[in-house]
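Final report, results section. Input specification for complex C-07:
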Amino acid sequence: MKVKKLEDGVYQLDVKGYVCPHPQLYTMKTLQKLKSGDVLEVLFDNPSSEESITALCDKEGHEIIEKRSDGGTFVYRIKKA
Amino acid sequence: MKPLSKNINIGMGNKILQNAQYKLKEERMNMADDADRRRKFWAFSVVGIMLIISLWYYRVNPIYMYIIAYAWFGFAYGILLQWGRFCFASAWRDLFAIGVTRMFVGIMVAMGVFSVIMAVLAANQLSTFHPGPLGIHELVGGLIFGLGMVLAGGCASGTLYKTGEGNGTSMLALLAISFSQAIFVDAQGWFDKLLRGYIFPQPKFTLAEKFFGKGLSLGEYFIANSIINTIIPTLIFLSLAYWFVARKGIVRRIIEKKAATLPADGGDVKLGLKDELYGFWQMITASKRTTLAGILIGIIAGIHVMAMQSLRDKFGIENFGQALVKLGFVEEVSRRGTVFDPGYWYITTQEAQVGAWVLEKFGWNMKDNIYFGVMNGIPEPWHNPALLMSIGIILGAAAIALLNKEFKFKAPTKELAVWGILGGTLMGLGARIALGCNIGAFYIRVAGGDPGGWLFFLGMGGGALASVKFLNWWTERQLKEEDFDIDIEIE
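Structure output:
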C-alpha cells in the first residue's frame, strides 16, 4: 500500500494486490484525511472493491470523476465532497 | 539556404517523430488487441473444456449426468457471483467497515426470491431441502466463520469466485478451509463427541412443518417458510440497515433536492413517511448489478434444487452414493452407502472431502469418524458431486472475469497470506461446528424455512464486527507508517 502526492490537491493511493476489504477501507481512510475538493486516484486490482468503492462514494457524496480499467487493474479518480 | 535546410531538417525530424509515435501507438493497440483475443480465447476454452468433459462423462455412463449437472449449476453460480461481486462476507463487513449496504441488500433480495421458489418446489415434492439441527452451535459456528471470512477477504462462496479471478490469497484461504475442516473432524474424536453429544439431539424442523404438520399446500409452505421465516426477517434486517447505516446519505440527497425547489425563505425541509419509503427503495436499488445478481442467484438456486430432485427421480436414487455402489466404487462411500450429495448449492463439505482425500494419500485414516466415515464418504474427486459444483464455480468466475478483462493472477503478499490462511482456517472450523457455511448453514436454510439459519447469520455478524475492528486498527497502523504528505494531517 502506498500513498503519494501527485501534485497540489491530487493524491494517489496504490492498493494493487490487496483483497477485500483493504482497498475500500484504505480508500475511505485516505479520503477522510484529505480536504474537500482534493482528488484521490485509487489504483486497485480486486474487482469486488469496484462496487464497494462506488457505493462508498455515492453514500458520502464524493464524485468519481474518472473510472478506467485495463488488464484487471482499476483506476478511480475521486473528488472529495 | 542554410536556414531553409535547417527548417526542412526540423520538418523531417518532426515527421519521423510523429511516425515513430504513431507506430508506437499502433503497436500498443495491437498488443491490447492481442491480449483481448487471448483473454477471449481462454474464456471460451474454459467453456469448451467443460463441454468436452461433460460429453466424456456421459459417454462413460449416462448416470454421470447427475454430477455434471452440479458442475454446470456451479458454473452459473460462478458467473453470477463474479459479475455481481456477490460475497456474503462483504454484507456484514462493508456495513460495519465503510457503512455500505450494497451486499447486505443483495443477499436479502437473493434469499427472498429463493424462498418463494423453494415454497413452490416443496409443495410439489420437488425440493431436496432438509432442515438441520437447531441449536447454539449455529451461533457459535457463525461467529467463528464470521471472524474468518473478514480476515480472508471473502466468505466460502466468495473465496471460490475470487480464486477464479486469479486471487492468490483466496486460493490459500481455500486450501486452509479444506484442510482445517478435514483435520478438525478427525482429530481426537472431538467433533464426533460434539455431534453425538450436542448437535444430533437438537430438534430439526421447518416453520411450515412446525405450524402445519406434513403434506402441506403451497399456501402453507409460502406463509410459514417464505413469508414468516424469510421475507419478514429480511425486511426487518433491511429496515435496520436503512435506519442505522444507509439513511444518513440518502436523506442528505433528498433534503438537497427538496431544498433546491423551496423559495429562499421557504423554511425547513420536512421528511415524511413517503420520503422514508422512497429512501428505502433507493437503498434497495442503489447497486442495480448486485440486486439483479441477487434475483438471478435466487432463481438459479431454485432451478438447481428442482433439477437435482428431477434427476434423482429419473435415475431412481436418493443419493449419488447409491450409484457409486452400483458402479462398484464401494470404497468411496460412507458406511451408510452415501456420499455428500446435498441436492442444492453448498460449498464447504466437498472442500473438507478434498482435504481428507489428500491426507489419506499421506497415510491418514480419515474414515474413522462420523463426518466422513458415516455421513459423507470420501469419493475420488472426479466422482464427487458437490466438488464438481465448486470447480464449476471457479471456472464460471474465471470465464466471466476473462471476458470482462478482470482476470489477473495476484500472488499474495506475506501479510495477505497470513490473513488468508488464518481466515480460511477459522471459516473451516466455523463451518463444521455450524454444519455449513454462508450458503449451507444460512442462505439455503433460511430460504428453506429453517429458522436456525438466522442464528448463523447473527453469529456471522458478530464475528465480522470483531474482525472489522481488528482490521480498522491494522489499516490505521499501516497508514501511519506511510510517508504521507505534509499537507495531510495524520490522526
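The domain at 2-79 of chain A is CATH 3.30.110.40 (Translation Initiation Factor IF3). Chain A has one domain: 2-79. This concludes the modelling results for the funded period.
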